């Protein structure tokens, strides 16, 4: 776990602003007929032109290798870590998750959004809305005096009250000098459990919910994680920093 100093806070705030702009441009590029590779190129270009580095690009994970792109882009039943491809074409009625990261002056930020492409079924729209609301609820618990379990409990209780599946096998995380750091932040849990939240923490909170079961599987590319029951899923994420007693959403 990395506790930020003033310089770190200034740089992670700048990194968050860069990532927010890249997300806005990436989301604007998501349209029927566009490939996921084209969306990735928009994100990559914006991050680099802003003086930052896409922190996902060439990120190494044992068993999977080096991730080849700036953005993880997933469609429908794909949850996370989708590799952008020239022949992966976005269609009307899809839901698309865009997960991106940036490193600026040594500080990393991470964020994700899931959007509908055109008209979708009411249940699908509700999936997106509840997942976003569960992120808001999780962030509201990220404050001094609480524990990491309070975040997971807030996400889980809200999601399950809305009859959505809460993914267990993937978690949020600490962030700062590296894209992924301690502590792990599950989207489920019990109040008053886990590490205590303290001044200077940077956290990437990222609810992942589905219309079906919570179980996932890894695709043949060893990267893309999909819902085992092929249900639709959504993913929202922000980087937050506990600074001077307040919770700052640096990617918002």
Assigned CATH class: Alpha Beta
| CATH topology assignment | Creatine Amidinohydrolase
What portion of residues is helical?
25-40%
Which outline best applies?
A: globular
What is the CATH H-level superfamily?
A: Creatinase/methionine aminopeptidase superfamily
List how many beta strands DSSP finds. Answer: 17
Portion in strands? 25-35%
Q: What do the pLDDT scores average to?
A: 97
Distance between the amino and carboxyl termini: 23 Å
Rg of Cα set: 17 Å
Q: How is the biggest beta sheet arranged?
A: 5 strands, antiparallel
Tell me the quaternary state.
Answer: single chain
Number of domains: 1
CATH architecture: Alpha-Beta Complex
- Determine the number of helices (DSSP H or I, runs of at least 4 residues): 4
Structural class of the helices, strands and pairings? alpha+beta
Along the chain, the helix and strand elements come as HHEEEEEEEHHEEEEEEEEEE
Catalogue the unreliable spans. Answer: none
Main sheet: strand order:
10-9-11-16-17
């Amino acid at each position: 776990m990395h506790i930020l100093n003033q310089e770190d806070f200034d740089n992670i705030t700048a990194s968050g602003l860069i990532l927010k702009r890249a997300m806005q441009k990436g989301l604007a590029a998501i349209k029927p007929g566009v490939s996921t590779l084209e969306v990735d190129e928009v994100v990559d270009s914006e991050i680099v032109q802003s003086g930052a580095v896409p922190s996902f690009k060439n990120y190494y994970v044992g068993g999977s290798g080096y991730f080849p792109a700036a953005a993880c882009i997933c469609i429908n039943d794909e949850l996370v870590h989708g590799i952008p491809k020239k022949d992966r074409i976005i269609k009307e009625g899809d839901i698309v998750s865009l997960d991106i990261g940036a490193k600026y002056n040594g500080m990393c930020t991470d964020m994700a959004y899931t959007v509908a492409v055109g008209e979708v079924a009411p249940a699908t729209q509700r999936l997106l809305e509840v997942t976003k609301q569960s992120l808001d609820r999780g962030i509201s618990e990220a404050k001094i005096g609480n524990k990491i379990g309070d975040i997971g409990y807030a996400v889980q209780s809200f999601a399950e009250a809305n009859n959505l599946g809460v993914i267990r096998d993937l978690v949020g995380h600490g962030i700062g000098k590296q894209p992924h750091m301690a502590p792990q932040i599950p989207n489920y849990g019990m109040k008053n459990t886990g590490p205590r939240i303290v001044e200077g923490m940077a956290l990437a909170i990222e609810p992942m919910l589905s219309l079906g079961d919570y179980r996932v599987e890894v695709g043949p590319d060893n990267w893309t994680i999909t819902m085992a029951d092929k249900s639709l899923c959504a993913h929202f994420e922000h980087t937050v920093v506990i600074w001077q007693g307040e919770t700052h959403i640096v990617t918002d």
